[in-house]
Design goal:
The chain has helices spanning 23-29, 39-56, 70-81, 95-106, 124-133, 154-164, 213-220, 233-240, 253-269, 271-291, 318-329, 356-370, and strands spanning 12-13, 62-66, 87-92, 110-115, 138-142, 144-145, 150-151, 168-172, 191-193, 207-211, 295-296, 307-311, 331-332, 334-335, 344-348. With 371 residues, it is of the alpha/beta class. The structure holds pyridoxal-5'-phosphate.
């Protein structure tokens, strides 16, 4: 019988995720499994929590890696703090904002969407006007919108929320974490989730999440139970915290080894150095692609270093270019989503692959393909 795994290619992952994985992280995934209540495993859990707090920029005690993907983190964030009839404001300017709206509506939230054109940032003055006009229980936004490459101006939005609302501030940091600073406490974010397979460079399967005391109080004072057993943080709290750890689910031991190592790698390099490396790779890509006539979709000042949306020049079939990149050069990049499909490509410079060698390989291949 043929083993399918023998056919896996050594692809350079420069798409919207998953990103490349460091050899040390692959090795960590293959280590000996131990029990999920083994005291040594609990020490590893505590170290993961400590490192996560640093990356989230928070002192929140309830900061844990959930056994799910980024979307599961989104689900966990909303299902815990949204109660039936809660007024929820979603600041939406891309695919993941649309997903937030869907999640909040399914939970019975009274959802209002403030929509901004895809490829442009959320406008803080519009948020301010909305918060002055209406009272909300929850305000939610995506910090790094992976579908468009926009870095939403969270500093200004945070200031507007602090001045005009006592809502729970819920933020998606899936693509941001590990690539640009995330400052949960400074920005007054109450619920923030991320994913393992973007700039943290771990395979997909872990969604770190953090809750402020204000969010925890809302969870503990809900009128009805969280309508999802598996993601109910009031139960997960007692497995990940406190003196006596109580069984909730079997933690994915080896996945958490990998996740531990991925965080360890970032701490060894230094968070600031990792951010600078993402920025340097982004600038090199910009320069290289400009030479062949490809421009950025997003205006300067709002561009994400780890997710580069490039406008496809007139007359070029981007799907054919991507296919050749993958088949002939072993490089994966991503298409545009929704209305941007066919109009942009998305180049991810995330985590382990956010380096000049990756950029050089991609730009050289693009030059050959387009020649
Ligand atoms: C990738 C991503 C998600 C979803 O994560 P999955 O791991 O694909 O479930 C959510 N939000 C943003 C901003 C993302 O980039």
């Amino acid at each position: 019988m043929k083993n399918m795994l023998d056919g896996i290619q050594n692809t350079l992952l420069l798409g919207a995720g998953p990103s490349g994985v460091a050899p040390a992280t692959y090795y960590a995934l293959s280590r000996q499994s131990i029990g999920h209540l083994d005291p040594y495993f609990i020490q590893i859990m505590d170290e993961i929590k400590r490192m996560l707090k640093g990356l989230f920029g928070t002192e929140n005690d309830l900061t844990v890696p959930l056994p799910t993907t980024g979307s599961g983190g989104m689900e966990a964030a909303f299902v815990n703090v949204v109660e039936k009839g809660d007024k929820v404001l979603i600041l939406q300017n891309g695919t993941f904002g649309v997903r937030m709206t869907d999640v909040a509506q399914r939970l019975g939230g009274d959802v209002k969407v403030l929509e901004f054109p895809w490829g442009t940032p959320i406008v803080p003055a519009d948020v301010e006007a909305e918060l002055k006009a209406n009272k909300y229980a929850i305000v939610a936004m995506v910090f790094a919108e992976t579908s468009t490459g926009v870095r939403n101006p969270i500093e200004e939005i945070s200031a507007v929320i602090k001045a005009n609302s006592d809502a729970i501030f819920l933020v998606d940091a899936v693509t941001a974490i590990g690539g640009i600073p995330v400052k949960v406490d400074e920005w007054g974010v109450d619920v923030c989730y991320a994913g393992s397979q973007k700039c943290l460079s771990c395979p997909p399967g872990i969604a770190p999440i953090t809750f402020s005391q204000k969010a925890v109080d809302k969870i503990l004072n809900r009128a009805a139970k969280v309508p999802n057993w598996y993601l109910d943080m009031s139960m997960i709290m007692s497995y990940w915290g406190g003196k006596k750890r109580v069984y909730h689910h079997t933690a994915p031991i080896n996945m958490l080894y990998g996740f531990y190592q991925a965080l360890f790698n970032i701490y060894e390099e230094g968070m600031e150095n990792a951010f600078a490396r993402h920025q340097a790779a982004h600038e090199a890509l910009l320069a290289g692609m400009k030479e062949i006539g490809w421009e950025m979709l997003v205006k300067e000042g709002y561009r994400l270093p780890m997710l580069n949306a490039l406008t496809v020049p007139e007359g070029i079939d981007e799907a054919a270019v991507r296919a050749r990149l993958l088949n002939e050069y072993g490089i994966e990049i991503s298409s545009g989503l929704g209305a941007l499909n066919g109009k942009i490509v998305r180049v991810g410079l995330m985590g382990y692959n956010a380096k000049l060698e990756s950029v050089d390989r991609l730009v050289a291949a693009m030059k050959e393909i387009l020649a």
